[in-house]
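Try it yourself: sequence plus fe (ii) ion, in.
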Amino acid sequence: MPPVTRREVLRTTLAASLLPLLPACRGDGDDGAAPAGTSGRFLHGVASGDPLPDAVILWTRVTPDDPLTAALRVEWELGLDPELARPALSGRVDTDAGRDYTVKVDVSGLQPGQTYYYRFRLGDQVSPVGRTRAAPAGAVEHLRLGFVTCGDYARGLFNVYRRVAERDDLQAVIHLGDYIYENARQNDVRPQVPPREAVTLADYRLRYATFRTDPDLQALHRQHPMIWIWDDHELANNSWSGGAEDHDPASDGDFFLRRASAFRAAHEWLPVRTPDHADLARIYRSFRYGDLLDLIMIDARQVGRDRPLASNTLFGEEVPVFTQTGDYTDPARQILGVEQEQWLIEQLRQSGARWRVIGNQVYFSPLKVLGSPRSLGGGGLYLSSDKWDGYAPARDRVLAAVAEAGNVVIMTGDAHEAYAFDVHDDPNNALAYNRLTGEGSKAVEFVVTSASTRGDGVVGDSLSARLQQLPDNLEQLLRLTNPHLKYYNNTRNGYTLLDIDAERVQAQFWFVPIVSQPSDEESLGAVFECAHGTQRLQRRD
Ligand SMILES: [Fe+2]
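Structure, out:
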């Protein structure tokens, strides 16, 4: 990014004399000769993200009136009042077709914990006003965070995003991935463009643009800063670092070209503070909320994952369960990659906060259709090799660091179902884990259900087809074979709130009744707490 210009410093100094703020700013554009284009509209809303105690990313996108416009210069302003009558900080930033006319500004010099308002201008066009919050610093008594994942535009309306937008007491919203879907679905609820599976840069950009026309998603971004990580559908179904289940080179072309296009569009369209502009594959990063919380966002999907293994049981592909034997025990197989795994372990070791929350894609806890202690060989029949279950040695390494750190909460997306787990690597071993008291548990995990991908009344698609035929019995069956599973719901879309103070973390599972039509309803499905120092769940509703 370019250095702050003299003009920006001057504007900043003038503004700082009016309000108790000393903001500096950096934009993606430079302050040289003004670009030619001066007219366009703000059709995709505003957004903010990756809040730090002194900085936040501001985002918008311009739709130029003339599609041949080479470049545009956009003004932005930020202040303490919603009307922005006296903006504390303003600046200019250039955008162009090379970044799909998206605009990102990393505004620094903010006050910890402060709420701000912001907007953009282009000629006589003014964007909506967005609200954002700098992260608090120092002694923090209480935090409330919203967690969402899996919002499929074609499958459902974003009633969940509207409910979260309406909450006034969230510090930030964490999106655990599947922010877009690349698939070709059409007209479950509404059409999307392009009307085919996204493969090229133009496709992915159009798909983000489609999603961002949604008023509920726009409201979510307008009200809260977002911290996002990708899952698989920002690229292709069940992707890994070298391919994807749904990528066929014969029809989809080179995988790495597709991957580069998907990653570029994601960094353009999401309010993420790109950790490394030379390596867009890297999104893992962490956020500090004073002495209360370290939020560690990981990528268990794209950057370092080895290809998932196939089933290794007698049932073969008919019932694709597997045992932890053979290649599944190979310690060299990675789900995070060597570099990220070391980074995560170091983050856990160095964290001095009361709590550590890990934002994660695929469920970390074991999930089996037949459970037995690991000491008896293999640990039973596991359900999905796409999850951490398919990478047990890597999980063992991370879990050792999790257990040593203590007070760790894992927040997971991807499943389109809600789960609450005591986290243990050998939960069927009664000597290691007590299914009644939770004694032996090393951490807790909450899996957030989809925002819309489940659709209405559809039994989930993340477990094997045979088990889906038994929805009434599924929770009982799963809890019988998985004693560390404390809650399971596979019928609803929704979101999860984390309410955090020094004494406990409380998770609230909220559900919406329908996504095929607009609805203002929501209901509280379950409440769990993990008390300080206990590493286990207690139901509280
Ligand atoms: Fe999903």
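One thing you can check immediately is this: Confidence is low (pLDDT under 50) at residues 1-31, 462-466.
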